[in-house]
Amino acid sequence: MKINFNKEGLTGDNLKLVEDLEKRAADLPDAPSKQDLVKEIRSALKGFVKPDGESEIDMNLLSDMLGDDDSKSIKGLRSALIKQGETITALQERSVKMANENPLAAALEKALPEVEKRMAAKGNDKSEVKFNIRAAAVMALGNTIDETAVPQDLIESMAMDAFVKKRRGVQYIYDIADRNVVSELTEYRTWLEEGSEQGAFAIVAEGGLKPLVSTALVRNVSKYKKIAGKYIVTEEFTKFRREAYAIIRQLINDKMVRDYNAILSADLTTASAGYTGSAFDDTFAAPNDYDAVGVIASQIMALNFIPDTLVLNPADLWRIRLTKDSEGRYLFPVVTTDGQTSMLGFNIITSTYQTAGRFKLLETGLYKIWEEPITVRMGYGITVTTATVSGATVVTNVESDIDTNRMRVIVETFFNDYLATNHIGSLVDASFATVKAALLA
């Protein structure tokens, strides 16, 4: 393909570029594709365009010098040159605008090649990158940070340090309950329990009347519950603060699990029996915490249950472990076997989810939990703001998430928890003070 340029008046970089284009065009077929033309033009321009967009080449001038040929190739070359010129002009304008309007952005733009080089280095080659920027005039207060020229990775690196979570209480409910995770939960869960008995088997004489014996079944039922919550985030935050958003999602999901365990623990306390009194009442001269636990164990075992786990608040655990006899010696009937702490033969669970001053003693595996996996959904909604005017509720504002550039994330799960009627008494939640007061002679 042959292209005739009008070189009259061209000097310097413009002349060199035209000669290079003529040479490259000579090696192309008579009807080259647009992609081939653009490829050759970009190759020719490599030596004339600087990284900051500065160039002495006038692309619009070069397109006018292509002549009057109306062939497809000439038109394609002219179009490609004009497009390339617009790109260079935009780069130049952006560089000038940043230098005039934002000294900080201009300084960052200038330092970015070195920053990227340092961040890409391996091992001990990574070194500190310092920015020495001073204000040339009075600085306005209250402005947001202009991060226009800062790459996303650099923002995350500067903004995020090592993440440290808060310490949380031990979630013990799964250690003592019979937990079942199912793909889908029904609205009601029903089961049969053994009812009352009548009559009894007996020795019968020859020809004697056989006694009537009967038993009953009782159907019990439990209805589902749902725990749910939502949070709202902007699209920019999820897009440009991915590391921070990942941490927030982790924290929100963790909070959901913690709140769920707190609700289960409250349900467990509601299902628990209390201290009903025993033959030990009014028989101890100076009852202590060990006596209170032992008496509750006696109450549970009298109903033919086998208590195996004691749940304590940390404050109560250490008050019990520091109990002394009349001569100042620690009673301390606490042992550790295979990493499991036990007291009076019961496994110990220490958790701040257990109310201080109270304790639970129980047979594990009888409290039932059926639950679905946690689901997370994202979508749009509306926020309605109301106010009370003259005793009436009036809508003052309605905002749509899609209009305000944000989205809602809903985290939820369905569950069903219960203690069968025939297992009431296997779980006791009692107050140390109440039990010791009953035992005091």
Characterization of this structure:
This protein is an alpha+beta fold and 441 residues long. The protein folds into 2 domains: 12-101, no CATH class; 160-189 and 221-441, hypothetical protein PF0899 fold. The chain is 36% helix and 23% strand. The strands form 4 sheets. The chain has a 6-stranded mixed sheet with strand order 6-7-8-5-9-15. Strands 1, 4, 10, 11 and 14 form a 5-stranded mixed sheet that branches.
CATH class of the largest domain: Alpha Beta
Radius of gyration: 40 Å
Content of β-strand: 15-25%
- Major pleated sheet: 6 strands, mixed
**Form type:** elongated
Task: Examine the coordinates and then state which fold CATH places here, giving the name of the CATH topology of the largest domain.
Answer: hypothetical protein PF0899 fold
Order of helices and strands: HHHHHHHEEEEHHHEHEEEEEEEEEEH
The order of strands across the largest sheet is 6-7-8-5-9-15
- What are the low-pLDDT stretches, counting only 5+ consecutive residues below 50? 123-147, 153-160
Count the E strands. Answer: 15
Structural class: alpha+beta
Distance between the termini: 115 Å
Share of helix, binned: 25-40%
**Number of spatially distinct domains:** 2
Structure in a nutshell:
The longest helix has 30 residues, at 72-101.
Annotate the secondary structure layout.
Elements: H1 12-26, H2 34-45, H3 59-64, H4 72-101, H5 103-120, H6 152-159, H7 173-176, E1 178-181, E2 188-198, E3 214-223, E4 225-234, H8 235-240, H9 242-271, H10 289-301, E5 309-312, H11 314-321, E6 334-337, E7 340-343, E8 346-350, E9 358-362, E10 367-371, E11 375-379, E12 382-389, E13 392-400, E14 406-419, E15 427-431, H12 432-439
Parallel strand pairs: 1-10, 5-8
Antiparallel strand pairs: 2-3, 4-14, 5-9, 6-7, 7-8, 9-15, 10-14, 11-14, 12-13
Helix pairs in contact: 1-2, 2-4, 4-5, 10-12
